[in-house]
Amino acid sequence: MENLFMKFMAQNKALAQQINLLNSKLGTMQLAAANTQIGSCDLCEIQGHTSDACAMIQDLASPEQVNYMGNGPR
Fold first, then answer.
1. Mean pLDDT of the chain
2. CB 65 within 8 A of CB 51
3. Count of domains forming the chain
4. Domain residues for 36?
């Protein structure tokens, strides 16, 4: 019975060490993500958003403009 208890305690200690290591790595990853800056947009060259989130693309994707380019509904 004591041997089983010792195995349990050893496993518990190993799991606690793994959890502490994972928490440490997660904290490092969160700091790195917080310090990462979004680059400037390739379309408008304004910092703070990526090209796929640029307002210029969203304006171009309006149905009126798409219909004009495709000569409207038929």
1. 79
2. no
3. 1
4. 2-69
pTM of the model: 0.44
Distance of CA 26 to the CA centre of its chain: 13
Confidence of residue 10 (pLDDT cuts 50, 70, 90): very high
Is 40 in contact with 53 (CB distance < 8 Å)? no
Q: How far apart are CA 45 and CA 53, in angstroms?
A: 12
In-domain check, residue 8: yes
Candidate from 35-39, 53-57, 59-63 with smallest mean pLDDT: 59-63
Q: What gap in Å lies between CA 10 and CA 3, rounded to an integer?
A: 11
**Closest listed residue to residue 51, CA positions, set 42, 59, 60:** 42
Measured distance CA(15)–CA(44) in Å, rounded: 50
